[in-house]
Amino acid sequence: MPEARELTLGEAVREALAEEMRRDPRVFICGEDVAEAGTVFKVLTGLVDEFGKERVLDTPISEAGFTGIAVGAAMTGLRPVVDIMFGDFVTLTMDQMVNQAAKVHYMSGGKWRVPMVMRATLGATRRSAAQHSQSLHAWFCHVPGLKVVLPSTPFDAKGLLKTAIRDDNPVVFFEDKMMYRLKGPVPVEEYTIPFGVADIKRAGSDITIVATSSMVQVALGAAKLLEEVDISAEVIDPRTVWPLDEKTLIASAKKTSRVIVVDEGYGRYGVTAEIASVIAEGAFYDLEAPVKRIGAMHVPIPFSPPLEDATVPTEKSVFEAAKTLVS
Amino acid sequence: MYFRNSVSVPELPLQFVYMAISVVMPALEMAQETGKIVSWLKKEGEAINKGEPLLEVETDKAVVEVEAAADGVLTGVRSHEGDVVAVGVTIAWIVAPGEQPPAESAAAAPAARKVTAQPPVAATAPPAETAGAAEGGPRISPKARRLAKERGVDIRRIRGTGLDGAITSEDVLAAEAPAPPAAPAPPAAALSAIARLMAERTTQSWTQVPHFYLVRDIDAGALLQVREQRMPAIERDRGVKPTHTDLLISLTARVLKEHA
Prior knowledge:
- The structure holds 2 protein chains of 2 kinds.
- By secondary structure, chain A is of the alpha/beta class.
- Chain A is 37% helix and 20% strand.
- In chain A, strands 3-2-4-5-7-6-12 form a 7-stranded mixed sheet, sandwiched between helices. Chain A has a 5-stranded mixed sheet with strand order 9-11-10-13-14, sandwiched between helices.
- In chain A, helix 9 (246-256) packs across helix 10.
- Chain B is flat.
- By secondary structure, chain B is α+β, with helices and mostly antiparallel strands.
- In chain B, the strands form 2 sheets. Chain B has a 4-stranded antiparallel sheet, with no helix packed on it. Chain B has a 4-stranded antiparallel sheet with strand order 5-4-2-7, with no helix packed on it.
- Helix content of chain B is 36%, strand content 14%.
- Chain B has 10 helices and 8 strands.
- In chain B, helix 6 packs parallel to helix 7.
- In chain B, a hairpin with a 4-residue loop joins strand 4 and strand 5.
- The A-B interface holds A 257, 284-290, 324-325, 327 and B 141-146, 162-163, 166, 168-169.
């Protein structure tokens, strides 16, 4: 029997990093305030004590610089895990990620590889204003050569991060900064979760809610509200938005005939748009209604708490949308 | 603008130019079509301040004070105590001191809100099957269309119960199945606003107004005979075929004249 215990999502991430660093001496962490400070979110607390400053490397505030260092280190045989404190600043790493990390394997005819992981945060409602609250993961999904992971539970975070570190390709791993304290069961024994395999977080028959990252928790809350009005919602978490488990999404859409896609990134040209399109193409003749997308409002995220709260999907907004679709 | 450059036009104070504000019969309830003026609280020519009670209006439910929408002078009062006026019709003007109310033609512009005000409501209602059929077939979900095709169900006779009145696969399956012993009433959502209103009003009339009937047999042989005889001449001279109703109206008018 596996030992029953609960970890927070932050602890699950730390455990995955620690286990992989013990397992493989080539794995190292670099970024701002990752060593003594353990990052502002305290996710990496204690790692520097076990692995030392050479493997938990504090860098200057220069995202382009340390991401470039990681790309080079990966090309020459190490397995770096880059820490981008606030995902908003992936903007500064884009050339390294898009033109270098994503292209090297292809352009070198497979002679070089970039087995690196970029860990970044997403998510609003932390009262951090417009430059520290965005969810920009969709940008990476647009580029061939990058894999994009969006864990929604401590269990998934640990299993997926271990897979990311062992992957020989660049992987961008987004954690919702508002979920670090979310608790959930995590087995003690070793496990990994393969990429491209969606997880049915809740089975249902009337409507499918496809959700990513913290929106999975929102979707599960909405599903509970829906249950009270006799609507059975299925909640599906793709877990990796690239590679994307199209088969599971389409199968669920065919089963329920109605679909809502929820993601905290901007709705316009966003993850929701791609997933909705995949479902519309794959399940068109089994749909009773257009696939509904719910993303962040298309505005810079306000600092004002009431306004900020109004820009992101909520249990209530997902519940209302689902009720309308099922009507 | 050339005109203004070449001819000297006296500058008018802005407030004078833009002052005249119409006082209209307000819609105080959702389904209100007319309002009765109980009393004017201000007189023709009296100075008024914005927000002051101007008149009292009686609706089906209550007597309500209507406030002045602007400062000025009440003038051009055209509806008086006891008048029943359609919603939206101008009943007076508020003007600047010394200003005349706008000409009659301009004042007549706001049409009375009668039953004709309802089509916009109907337009936003879920499209009824006939409405949808007029524009390339009824609204139907992709799944329902596929099912209907597979099972040979005629979608034109199905009433949609889905999103925006779309036909769902459940509607198709229900239409295919033999009619259940007690056919459920069609859902309210499928009715147009006009149809729903008609149903409401008819129900109201049947349940709230005492009904009685007078039945009397009348030999209309003579009437039919007259119609037969005179029809050719009337049709030739006037270009119309008189109906029985036309004849009844004509007879009623004559009788009323005698008893007026």
